[in-house]
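Handover notes (outgoing to incoming on-call)

Open items:
1. AzlC family ABC transporter permease: sequence verified, structure written out, both below. Nothing else pending on this one.
2. Nothing else urgent.
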Amino acid sequence: MSISQATLSQEAGDRSGSEFRRGIMSCTPVLLGTIPYALVLGAQATQKGLRVVELSAMTGLNFAGGSEFAAIQLWTSPPHILLIVAITFLVNSRHLLMGAALAPFLRHLPRRKVFPALFFMCDESWALGLADARQRASDGIGPAFSLRYYMGAALAMYLAWVAFTTLGAMLGPVLGNVEPYGFDMAFPAVFLVLMRGMWKGFAAARPWLVSLVVAALVYLFVPGAWYVAAGALSGLIAAYVLAGDA
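AzlC family ABC transporter permease structure tokens:
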């Protein structure tokens, strides 16, 4: 390798490292907001009888906080596996739409990089990655999607989520009932921040409103956790029906 080739390689490595660090720094404020409800999830899981290693396996293999909260709420002994699987699928079905929105920016990447990137996709890393890709595209920077930036945000979220849910499970027996502390308010607060960043006007937000109203009505009038499934399904249907109007 010549001196010029070595210099170019080093510069490319520096840019990659810079993009990775930029991703970590961008997600840090949101990441700090997820820590309280990660602890809540861990504490609730131990109250439902899950062991620490079981919770760590669940959060590591199914990296999606909304469906994990739903699964914990439905957890019984013995658990209703089919119901939990069905609710998990419905809650996580939003990832189909999220992946579809991201797909146009991933076409330049090989599948061996795309599939691992999508495994680590969560609401927060998706929102940051998509917003950054759109900004880079508007600035004329190519390729628009920075995989290093996205993975910096996604891996930071993944490691923090697994670590702090595990810590919550370890501290759960000591803390007892954590609901009076109000930590669970961090969950809707983080999603409100993400929604603010994706806001495109009232027309585009109509599926969110439909999902919210349906879930609230089902929660008030139907016992059990069917409001989760009802909210997810109504939101998907509304997004499909109203897609041409937004």
